[in-house]
Amino acid sequence: MYTYDTLDQAIVDTRVDEFRDQVARRLSGAMSEDQFKPLRLMNGLYLQLHAYMLRVAVPYGTLDSRQMRMLAHIARKYDRGYGHFTTRQNIQYNWIKLEQAPDILAELATVQMHAIQTSGNCIRNISSDQFAGAAADEVTDPRPWAELIRQWSTFHPEFSYLPRKFKIAVIASDTDRAAMRLHDIGLQLVERDGQVGARVFVGGGMGRTPMIASEINGFVPASQILSYLEACLRVYNRHGRRDNIYKARIKILVHDLGAEEYASQVAAEHAALAGLDLDPPAAELARITAMFASPAFEEDAPTQVDRSDPDFAVWVDQNVLPHKRAGYSIVSISLKPRGGIPGDASADQIDVMADLAERYSFDELRVTHAQNIVLPHVATRDLPALWTALREAGLAEANLDLISDIIACPGLDYCSLANARSIPLAQKIGERFGDLGRQRELGELKLKISGCINACGHHHAGHIGILGVDRKGTENYQLLLGGSGAEDVSLAKITGPGFSEDGVVDAIEKVTDVYLARRQGTERFVDTYRRLGMEPFKEAIYG
Amino acid sequence: MDSATEEPCVTLEAFLTQDSATAVRLEAGDDARALLPHVARLALVEVAFPTFRDGRGYSAARMLREAGYAGTLRAQGDVLVDQVPLMRRCGFDAFAPQAPLDAAALSRAENRYQAVYQRAADARAPVWKLRHG
Amino acid sequence: MKLLTGNDLSTGDVIWWTGRDWSRHVEDAADVGDNGESIARAEEGARAVNVPYVIDAVATADGPRPAHIKDRIRALGPTVRPDLTLKPADPGAGDWII
After folding, report:
1. Full residue range of the structural domain in which residue C40 is found
2. What is the mean pLDDT of residues A91-98?
């Protein structure tokens, strides 16, 4: 993975200094809250429902054991002993003190971590495929591109006061494991004539007006990707709406102009930028790429493992996927234990995962946008020992991609933007469908809960989506069906009037019963929904 | 920071219909592109920042410099200490903040970052240039 | 009744105006009536509070109870982590919120 050189380290260290200065000026009153707010947001610091909340960046979801241990240390020393992994591959701490924030950033900087641009109207964390470097279907590892773009976007002087936040995802396979089509800009790396370039998609997003990104360019080579992104961002910075925060994302601009017109404005801007030496030489991407070389895999590592323990076998079947290299496996650690809080991990659990990564995964972990953790390079022969250790730490829930592997925003328990609580609902759903056999019978079922229309829980992209609303002061839940954030991208549709918390759990059960009764062959839930349409489900729910 | 003894700025609309003006003021919503063919004529462009959150002026400034504008480029309005370094990188070389700036804080801000990641309108070499020459 | 609330600037703690000073406990909150805005401005100017605002509440035997569930969660803590609330040992705390 990427390792800072002295220049990268100097920049991060300087940022700590800068923020310390800004905090001091806020605490002394030299700066008002209104002046300070964008500055603290650009350092990932929110003023949230209970306290300040800090969102630490995990660039494209990749980190090592040393960094993971620092996250555990931050949780213990500065917070309340746990962290929350997010739908953008970052981690959040909910109980931060402003006066300690500079010290936290200083400690993070010692392990090449930061909270730069994890909030604010600027370019956010570049997300990527959690199986990058391990998946057999990738054209190349997308993360060197993500790193190149991360550096370019960091403290970009022209794009620090955009109309709104800006999220970029980079993948390198036809399979979309990063919800790329639902980002402001999504890049899919493809190969053409022996060269790797990016298909560029613009204008995806969720929130109040969900939209799927449109392709605006079929192939931008690495040698031009940064100047091309400059052009994309400049058109947005100049023409994105600033009169209404609910209409300020680039998806609205692309929708209003039309993708073709937006693409042609970008092309014109890109042409105007030619000859300005904006793109780094090929040597820079090569330098970064060399740091993402495959680990020293063993030749002829054993491919079979003893499955005689039935619990182990279930876990292998559900949470372990084949690696591109024979004898290795991709292991997913579910942070959705029965009765737990989706995406949360205690400091002790974070330390356990760090140790296990160091021992069993060439010292590498990934954070997924589904709020789980991945150990990408595990020798198949080590699976039993790994599973035993995970079980001891409460990290062996075998529910990857099943109905209880819920994506849930923190909701009204933690977030001042929320209209309803999401976590208790996730727990109730997990309880109703607690039986693992029943869950496996239902198969792949991506259930996503948002506590408000901002859609941080990605409910528009759920096979089953739930949106919490405020109905005359009471929490109420809308049920949506048929969304997907994968390569079969689609936006979920609402079933009808909303429900109470218990009511929506009952409705979900009715919906899954319809699926079980009517599915054909190996159809997943979402496939059956797409074949049958909303009617049979609506009828089952509302009678 | 700046004396007011130069020619007063005309609006963009007025500038485009006159032959003699050499100073123009761009409001945040004006299209800077309209000025690009005329940069050789200009001695002063003032760019408005009605609120510091409105970042359109950064693009306007950079586009002007990219088109070869060599005159004074002034940021006017809700200009605060922490945005000045970014403004300089986008090509601003004069500042007319509506509220006075803390000189000590400003000096610290302007001299803080030794390295920058990307090329902009200033002369600073991005990190990749230092790495590879 | 009307309560004035905000956050401690340096710690981020949720705080409530008691009539004289700021408390972390909503039981201590005073009814500010129509004076919320002017008290808020003065206190914010003195940096005794960050981003203050007024909320509705109902007077009860146990003290003021914010009218909206969001404010009650904010007053006490997350419903899903009773151990992290201001009243970790109180089994009735959850009912007070909901």
Report:
1. 2-91
2. 98
Domain that includes residue A328, residue range? 310-392
B10-132: CATH topology is Rossmann fold (3.40.50)
Nearest CA in chain A to B84: A157
Report the amino acid identity of residue A230: E
* pTM as predicted: 0.97
Contact C7 A96 (CB under 8 A): no
Q: In this structure, what CATH number is given to the domain that contains residue A351?
A: 3.30.70.3340
Q: What are phi and psi of A298, to 5 degrees?
A: -75, 145
Which tokens sit at A13?
């260290």
Residue in this structure with the two tokens 């991360």, named with its chain if needed: A150
pLDDT tens digits, one per residue of B90-125: 999 999 999 999 999 999 999 999 999 999 999 999
- Residues A26-83 have pLDDT tens digits of 999 999 999 999 999 999 999 999 999 999 999 999 999 999 999 999 999 999 999 9
Q: Where are the domains of chain B?
A: 10-132
- Residue C6 located in a structural domain: yes
Domain shared by A260 and A145, yes or no: yes
Distance CA A543, CA A264 (A): 50
Helix (H) or strand (E) holding B75: strand B72-77
> A214 has which bridge partners?
A202
The H or E element that residue A430 is part of is helix A423-432
Q: What gap in Å lies between CA A322 and CA A135, rounded to an integer?
A: 8
Whole-angstrom distance, CA of residue A119 vs CA of residue A57: 10
Banded pLDDT at B5 (limits 50, 70, 90): low
Predicted confidence (pLDDT) at residue A209 exceeds the cutoff of 80? yes
For residues A150 and A267, state if they share a domain. yes
Which chain A positions have a beta carbon within 8 Å of C74's beta carbon? Answer: 49-50, 416
- Which stretches of chain B sit within 8 Å of chain A by CB? 31-32, 52-56, 58-60, 62-63, 66, 80, 82-83, 85-87, 89-90, 102, 105, 108-109, 112-120, 126-132
Residue A66 lies in a domain: yes
CB contact, 8 Å: A192 with chain C? no
Rounded Cα distance, C16 and C64, in Å: 11
